[in-house]
Structures are given as structure tokens and as C-alpha cells.
Amino acid sequence: MYNVGLAGLTYWSPNINIFRDPRWGRGQETPGEDPLLTSKYGSSYVQGLQQSDDGDPSRLKVAACCKHYTAYDLDNWKGVDRYHFNAVVTQQDMDDTFQPPFKSCVIDGNVASVMCSYNQVNGKPTCADPDLLAGVIRGQWKLNGYIVSDCDSVDVFYKIQHYTKTPEEAAAVAISAGLDLNCGSFLGQHTEAAVKAGLLNESAIDKAVTNNFATLMRLGFFDGDPSKQIYGKLGPKDVCTPEHQELAREASRQGIVLLKNSAGSLPLSPTAIKNLAVIGPNANVTKTMIGNYEGIPCKYTTPLQGLTASVATTYLAGCSNVACGTAQVDDAKKIAASADATVLVMGIDQSLERESFDRVDLLLPGQQPLLITEVAKAAKGPVILVIMSGGGFDISFAKNNDKISSILWVGYPGEAGGAAIADVIFGYYNPSGRLPMTWYPQSYVDKVPMTNMNMRPDPSTGYPGRTYRFYTGETIYTFGDGLSYSTFSHQLIKAPQLVSIPLEEDHVCRSSECKSVEAVEQSCKNLAFDIHLRVQNKGRYSGSHTVFLFSTPPSVHNSPQKHLVGFEKVSLTGKSESLVRFKVDVCKDLSVVDEVGSRKVGLGQHVLHVGSLKHSLTVGI
Asked: What dihedral angle (degrees, nearest 10) is formed by the CA atoms of 300, 306, 309, 310?
């Protein structure tokens, strides 16, 4: 134990930026490309960290921090870096894509802190923007906590962005905008001079200090002997317990996504396989599995170790690293040709995607595709391709290759990743993970600059839009994709065909034709309906299944082609069924954001989707 009594109680996590562009080096830290999923993840993550077991809502177990506010999703791409980047964002994209996770973090999660980012948004550094900080986070959302800068970002907007002429002005601008705490030494060095120069009132500093100390108080810093407090008995004995190690393995299993599975491939039988070829630069890795912003693992189980626990294996790295300058193709073909099945563990690591480093293409690096294709050609038995990475790839060559019978994406699966991969491959666990982001073809990044923040397509320039909500082009895989060893069916049991929005007698839409109405409180109160679905597991394997409810709104205000309304995970034994219920709030769940950032409910036909099931309902007045 390296940090007993020294770890602190404020954790600058979670990262809830939208995974807008597949090349982003920090996409691996986020829950994906969808604002609703990211919002629910953010508020749940925060509650898990913060909520105290004594039930006192004003107390904090630890203080979480939602970051990086806002429209931050470019690190360093083709010479454009986060310290210089000005994200030009429309009000519509701001309010329907970039802001919702932060709003949910503050309002639903009651987060103790929000961190402003390095980039500018529409010409203003986020940490110096009073509208974004004091106006929105504190004013509209009523943050109960402190606003902190990303490390040295006040220094960055002074020195690199030249937003102010002097350091004192930078300190004054940041604190006046609503910044309470600076990660770094800048405010400590320059704030006093800013007050003396008359650029800042002492009352603004009092306010910031109050926000910071109130958080310390809620954490129990001033409550006396820590060992007498609710968590005072926790220590090294509570770390790496068998329960915690099993949880790491279970989290890893749940995150594995089965993208392709030909008949007779997975799961492999551990008794029928006498020799398994295990090939690839990520097949025997340890640290790669825990990604970035990582803790110290209890112990590692590599993919090779996980697989070897069930069957005899023959291992070859095939490349000296993930860049794979030269692949050992002949040696790899030899062992695949004599093995009963072959597992290729490919992908990338922090050397090719990380903070301050974005990718420039979507192809597996170096000779990885050659190695995969040649091994598949020579292999005697089924070939299972495992991709370990944070971002997606154009793996159309493998998807379309009949000799590659199965494809798994495992993300960076954590300390127990190898055990979890083996659990799925041998059928001890039925995969249920779904892709949190779209996998695009290489042609997408050839024509879309990472610096273009627009979510919506622009037919006049051929710009294809971003994420499953707006992107109109071809995909390799899309948001929500993921297979199981079972087949699940959906049947609609209950859903309305007509929903009416109550409007006042003199409302303008009663006398003239409207395409949408404002989602305002008086017409929205209690305006909700139920959707009931019967979900059946038609296979013999027990398994979990995530039911996604999507909606396609009428085409008003450049609305998304579809968006996520809700999701529920059900666990079903083989050949069983369950009822899944969604409560749909019309103004919250079926509304879209218009061009100026207001929420509107489109009038006309809305189509609800669950899997291949579609249900039309009319929203009228």
C-alpha cells in the first residue's frame, strides 16, 4: 500500500466529454458518444463516489469532479493542440450534445466539483467565461461545490492563448468568471497583486474560499479524529479483497463486446480444444490492460494466462510491439496451422492513443492486418480476433473475411482482463456488452477534420455529421452493436398511438400551423406514457441483454435521425422471458433542441425503435 492516509478525498473524475471523433486519444476515458448514456453514467458515477452510507445528503464520502467543461475532445491532432484550440460550437450542438452530461452531473448527481478545460469555446477560454461558469454551472444548475481549472489552464490562457495582457488580469478574469480553485500555482502567485491593482474585489476571493472550504467540511475534514468517523476503520485490509478482485473480473466481462460470430465458432469447448494458438502483440500484456489514469492493480491476468488456465496454448507475440513494423508471419502461420483454434489479440496501447496524442487514422497499425489475414488463411480451426483499444477501427478486412470466425472488442479490460476474455471465449460467460461509439471507415477521417465541431451533416459541403445520431454514411459497426450467444426477441405489449400536448386556449399553435411546441413546464406537467415490452431469450444460454429504446422525431429543427430515450438491462435464463417497462416523459425524452438552444417537441409522427421493432406515435395538440 503506497498511499495509506495520504490519498486525499477529492477525485477529479469522471471524464464525461462526448467521444465525438474516433481519433481522440482520451476517448478511452469516456463512456462514449451518446449524451443520454453519458449523462446517466456521469450522475451514477458521482453518486457512487460521493454518497455517504449514513444517508446524510450534505456529507460526502469523497468529492467527485465532472470534467472537462466543455466541448473538449481534441488533444493534439496534426499540430493542433488543446492549449491553442478554439472550439467553434453552435448553440444547438452545445445544448443537445456537449452540455447535457455536465448538467446531469450537477443536477442529478449533485457533484461536488466541475473542472473547466484548456480549450476556448467560441473565442473564450472556458476557465475565463462568466457565462459558462457563474452563469450556467452556478446560476442555472446551482452547483453545490467548487469549480476548478484543469492543471495550469489559467497560465495557459495567459501565456499561450494571450487572452489577457498580464498575469494579474488573468487571475482576476478567472476568479470573476466563477473559478474557485486553480490546479497549479498561478493564482497563488498572482491573485494578491490583482487585488492590489484593483482588478478584483476581495469579496470574490471570499466566495471562492468559501466554496472550497465548504467542500472540505462536507468531507469531514474538521470533524475530529478520522478513525472515529464512518469510514475511519478502512485500511489496507479492505483493498484487493477477493470480492474486489471478482468485481474487477465481472466488470471486465460485462464490458466485452462480441461484434462477429459465425456459426460453430464461439464459444469454444475447453474439452474439445487440445491446443490453442495465441498470437499477437497484446496477447501477454499487463499494463496495457489498465489504460490511462490507472490505479495500482492487485495482480494481472494476461489474455495468455487466462486462456492457458483452461487449455494448452502455444504463444507467439507476432510483432515486437503494437506498432508492428515487421510481423513474424511465417512463424505465426505455422502454429495456427497445427492448432485446433487460434486467438489473435491485437489492437493498440498508450503509445498510439493517449492524453496529448490523437490518432491520425483508423487502421490497425503496421503489419497487424497482414498478420491477421495470413494467420486466418493458414489456420486449421476457428480464428477469433480480439481487439484491445480505447477507440474504434476500420476492420472491414476482418469483418468481411469468412476465415475470421469471431471478433471481440475488449476495450482496456482492467487487471482481470485476460480471465474475462477467457470466460467469454470458453462460454463460462455469455457476452452482453454493446459498443458505446460508432466505428467508422477510414474514408471518414480522410474527409472530416478533427477540428470541425459540428455534429450535424452539411449536404452543401458533403460533411457527413458525427455519431449515430447524425452521421449519414457507412459504418463498420455502430453505437449499441453487440452480439450474444443467445438470440433475444422483443414484442410490444403496451404503447400509445397518440399523445396530446395541452396548450392554453389562446396559444399561437391553436390558430396557426406549428411544426413544434416549446417544452415548457405548464404544458409538460405529468405528460408521460408507459411502454411495455416482452423480451424473450430464445437460446439455451442464460445471459444479459440491454434493451435500447430509441426515438426518431419528426424532421424539425435539424433533429437527430434517432436518439436514445432509455435503456434497461435484463438477465434471462435460456428459453425464458421478462417484461421491460419504460416511462417516457414527452417533453424530456421526445423533445429536440432547436437552432437557438430551446427544447421543443416536434408535432407529427415519432417512431420508437427497439431492435428491429418500430412503433409510430403521433404527437399533437
From this structure: 170
pLDDT digits (tens, 9 = 90+) for 333-364: 999 999 999 999 999 999 999 999 999 999 99
Residue with cell 461536488: 112
Decide: helix, strand or coil at residue 517: strand
450: left (phi over 0), alpha (psi -120 to 50) or beta: alpha
Q: How many CB atoms sit inside 10 A of residue 596's CB?
A: 10
pTM: 0.98
- Cα separation of 132 and 67, whole Å? 13
Distance, CA of 338 to CA of 317 (rounded, Å): 17
Three-state secondary structure readout of 439-495: ECCHHHHHHCCCCCCCCCCECCCCECCCHHHHCCCCCCECCCCCECCCCEEEEEEEC
DSSP per-residue string spanning 63-111 = B--EEEETT---SEETTEETTT-EE---HHHIIIIISHHHHHHHHTT--
**Phi and psi of 35, rounded to 5°?**
-65, -35
Mean pLDDT of the chain: 97
Return the DSSP state at 298.
S
- Nearest CA to 290 among 349, 368, 365? 349
DSSP β-ladder status, 591-593 and 599-602: antiparallel
- What's the CA gap between 268 and 265, in Å, rounded? 7
| Residue for grid cell 475511519 | 232
Residue 2 pLDDT level (bands cut at 50, 70, 90):
low
Rounded CA separation 104/38 (Å): 9
For residue 3, give the amino acid letter. Answer: N
Quote the CA–CA distance of 455 and 177 in Å, as a whole number. 28
Question: pLDDT at residue 135 above 80?
Answer: yes
Question: ∠520-525-527 over CA atoms, to 5°?
Answer: 105
> Which 8-state DSSP code applies to residue 133?
I
Residue positions annotated with a catalytic role: 150
State how far the Cα of 614 lies from the Cα of 491, in Å rounded to an integer.
Answer: 10
Q: CB within 8 A of 461, min separation 6: which ones?
A: none
Q: What 8-state DSSP symbol labels residue 26? A: T
